[in-house]
Amino acid sequence: MTSVVERWNIHPGHQWLRGVRPDQTVQLDEETGVWHVYGYQEVFEVLTQPKTFSSKTAHLFSVQVDDVYSQGDMSQLDPPEQTRYRKLVSHGFTPRVIAELESRIGKITEDLLDEATGKGQLDLVADLAYPLPVIVISELLGIPASDREFFKNIAFAVIEGTTGAALISGGDDAQAQADAAVERVKALVDYMREQVLDRRRTPREDLISRLVAAEQDGTRLTDQEIINIANILLFTGHITTTMLLGNTLVCLDNDPEQFARVRADRSLVPGALEEGLRVLTPSAALTRRSATEVKLGGQVIPEEKVVMIWPGAANRDPAKFRDPDVYDVTRDPNPHLSFGHGVHFCIGAPLARAEGRIAMNILLDRYAELGTDPDNPPSFFPSPDMIGAKSLPLRVR
Questions:
Q1: In this structure, how many other beta carbons lie within 10 angstroms of the beta carbon of residue 329?
Q2: Which DSSP string do the residues of 170-222 spell out, in sequence order?
Q3: At what angle do helices 349-366 and 131-141 cross, to 10 degrees?
Q4: Cβ 40 vs Cβ 337: under 8 Å
Q5: How far is CA 290 from CA 51, 164, 188, 266, in A?
Q6: Secondary structure of 27-79 in the HEC alphabet?
Q7: Which of the residues 28, 85, 175, 273 could staple to 63 if both were Cys, CB 3.0 to 4.6 A apart?
Q8: What is the pLDDT of residues 46-74, one digit of tens each?
Q9: What count of other Cβ atoms lies within 10 Å of the Cβ of residue 146?
Q10: Strands (E), 310-374
Q11: Over the Cα atoms of the chain, what is R_g?
């Protein structure tokens, strides 16, 4: 059977998606000076050693953005700073909060599919996989879901226009890309500032209000910190679920036998989603900094070097996974690293999993037939850092 990667020619430059293993699990790119980490064990080690592999990497990039955009950015912080922010934000993603959201997630899914009825074709991304998590995270934050198209345009433009690799290696247009991304984000910053100021005047029962009121160790978050935290939650809180749903659907569509099994036995839905995360990892690459000289994968990485880890490659490491290039909805255990690991494990992972599970079950309940259209194939984000369907037209009945 042709793999889903070959069928849709997903990221031609990523040979590890096509079963080609790197000669070494840790490699230096002589041209850029970046150390790339591909092996599961090595990526795991980086993720679990924040003192050695710091998340504070921005100052090593070839292009720079104003520090104002990094205040409160947990992805650029190490403990104990990162821990402080994480504790403040995690209250919005507890098991109790997620459980209480389940009926609402189902209602939003049904409403979105009702809106799409009558088209004869469903674009899974545009009609469901994108708006569902945006509405959910918007409601958690307390901002109108009616503004979701505004967020979509900014998020998609940033993903398409800027890559981590470009920020690191530079190039003729790298700074221009970064500047353009900042210009797009400015509109979102201005929007969120109004939301934060409104909550200071009139608190509500939402996450922005809780961040405004939060106090830890005698200090409160600044407006800019809250703005950046809210924007990061809005951005990351929807894009992973968007890609999770789309990527799982194209994997299932590529294997009709497994798709039929999942349809018949809904206990397989969570496994299908986890395997979709492993085979087509949304956040394919992450950056860290070597805070000290360190030996990893038989290589000595000097101090103060950019270390780019590839969870997407690690999730296909044959040393960790049996038949790593095979999509298997019954794979158990499935210790993929798609949500990270350790202190930076994705806060929103339980929410993304709940959204994916509920939406997938409703899709299977509603449509007896659900598959890609050969005449209107899916498109994928071009950024090498991300793997996900940008559009996914489906034939439904």
A1: 24
A2: --TTHHHHHHHHHHHHHHHHHHHHHHHHHHHHS--SSHHHHHHH-EETTEE--
A3: 140
A4: yes
A5: 9, 17, 32, 44
A6: EEECCCCEEEECCHHHHHHHHCCCCCEECCCHHHCCCCCCHHHHCCCHHHCCC
A7: 175
A8: 999 999 999 999 888 766 556 676 787 88
A9: 9
A10: 370-372
A11: 21
- Write down the pTM of the prediction: 0.91
CA distance 121 to 395: 5
pLDDT at 147: 81
E strand or H helix that includes residue 290? strand 286-290
Which parts of the chain sit beneath pLDDT 70? 1, 62-67, 69, 120, 155-181, 216-217
**Given its phi and psi angles, is residue 270 left (phi above 0), alpha (psi -120 to 50 degrees) or beta?**
alpha
pLDDT in tens, 165-207: 544 555 556 566 666 667 777 888 898 999 999 999 999 999 9
Residue 236 in tokens:
């990351």
Residues 6+ apart with CB under 8 A from 273: 244, 248, 353, 356, 357, 360
Q: Which residues of 126-141 are buried (b: 16+ CB within 10 A; e: fewer)?
A: ebbbbbbbbbbbbbbb
pLDDT digits over 31-44, tens only? 999 999 999 999 99
Q: What share of the chain is helix, strand, coil (3-state, %, to 5)?
A: 55, 10, 35
**Plot region of 171 (φ>0 → left; ψ -120 to 50 → alpha; else → beta):** left
Cα 363 to Cα 361: distance, rounded to the nearest angstrom: 5
- Tokens 């981590």 identify what position? 164
Tell whether omega for the bond before 80 is within 30 degrees of 0, i.e. cis.
Answer: yes
Phi, psi (deg, nearest 5) at residue 148: -65, -30
CA dihedral 140, 143, 146, 149 (to 10 degrees): -90
Please report the pLDDT score of residue 177 as a whole number: 63
